[in-house]
Write a structure and sequence with these properties.
Blueprint: H1 3-15, E1 23-26, H2 33-44, E2 47-50, H3 51-59, H4 63-87, E3 92-95, H5 104-113, E4 115-120, H6 123-130, H7 144-162, E5 165-168, H8 174-189
Parallel strand pairs: 1-3, 1-4, 2-3, 4-5
Helix pairs in contact: 1-2, 1-8, 2-8, 3-4, 4-5, 6-7
Bound molecules: shikimate-3-phosphate.
Residues 29, 52, 63, 97-99, 136-138 line the site of shikimate-3-phosphate (S3P).
């Protein structure tokens, strides 16, 4: 049922210039940032961009390849550059990698660069979504479930600090999250 929010979003975007700003989705791996982001972009009539995809396209390598060659610090440098690149221009819906908030300068750029929404997710849901995937180097540990719990606990305060709004995704389908986000954006710019 994305049709309805789509039509609503476009109307609101035209009526209110503030709705034209970037929307930046932050949150842990497996929170649904890309899925929700694509639907939201369609609803608002904005371009959708994923920072991980941008990094891979710019580098001509996959994220695991970048981690293997340059380690996490090298990846974070590329990520910071990609973030700056996608925040320029727009309006866009921007889905970010789960660790983009680790650098204070990125947090600042995100808060200034648009409306930032934290898609919050619990560790069990993350594990359920990522257990069969292999493209996340930070979860290639002997105990990925424990790694998820630890990283999530460490990062939650930083997501909270960065976001203008937190949306709990537990038990929610992407379409209903998008409807709520469109309403929030409208209220925020009213
Ligand atoms: C990371 C999350 C990944 C990707 C990289 C590092 C992180 O993105 O940027 O593997 O530090 O949480 P997703 O959140 O899209 O999985």
């Amino acid at each position: 049922m994305v049709q309805e929010p789509g039509a609503l979003g476009k109307r609101q975007a035209r009526e209110d210039p503030d709705m034209e700003g970037n929307v930046i989705l932050i949150g842990f791996m497996g929170a649904g940032k890309s899925t929700v982001g694509k639907l939201l972009a369609r609803a608002l009539g904005h371009e959708f961009v994923d920072t991980d995809a941008r990094i891979e396209a710019d580098a001509g390598r996959t994220i695991p390849e970048i981690f293997a060659a340059e380690g996490e610090p090298g990846f974070r440098d590329l990520e910071s550059a990609a973030l700056r690149e996608v925040l320029r221009g727009g309006p866009r819906v921007i889905s970010t990698g789960g660790g983009v908030v680790l650098r204070p300068e990125n947090r600042e750029a995100i808060r200034r660069g648009g409306h930032c929404v934290w898609l919050a997710v619990d560790p069990a849901t993350v594990w359920d979504r990522v257990r069969r995937e292999t493209h996340r180097p930070l979860l290639r540990t002997p105990d990925p479930e424990g790694t998820i719990r630890r990283m999530l606990a460490e990062r939650e305060p930083v997501y909270r600090e960065t976001a203008h709004w937190c949306l709990d995704t537990a038990g929610r389908d992407p379409e209903s999250l998008v409807r709520e986000m469109v309403d929030w954006l409208h209220e925020r710019s009213a």
